[in-house]
Amino acid sequence: MEADINSASMLTSCYTALGDAAGMSRAAQQALKRAESVLAREPNNSLVTGYSAYALAALGEGERAKARMNRALLIDPDNFNMRYNFACAISVYLRDKEAALEMLGPLFETINDSFLPYAKADPDLEFLHDDPRFRAMVSAAELRLAATGDA
To answer: What's residue 3's pLDDT?
Structure first.
């Protein structure tokens, strides 16, 4: 289906996990094409803006991807999943620790006990695992959750 952006975006992730750069690029281009078609009609659709940002990151268009991420967060600033997925895309495709950590900061301030173990183990964030700032975010979240009895 031409309007199915989610499947093309998921294919991007699958091809990335398989190490198939050509497949990843094809899927990301397809996701971007579909997203831009929707954005031409619905420029304030944060979900589709997010999909387009992820595709741009996968295609190595870092500045455009970050601009779209910022736009999506202006439209929907409290979207936890979108912020998390942006951090993953920045880590995996753009390899930008500063931007990924900046994206994760507000998320870790409110992360809950059911999502924290996932974030700690997510291979998309492996790029950050050795960074002391990432470890500090995890520790702060663990302490916050322990203090409130949520851990």
So the answer is: 75
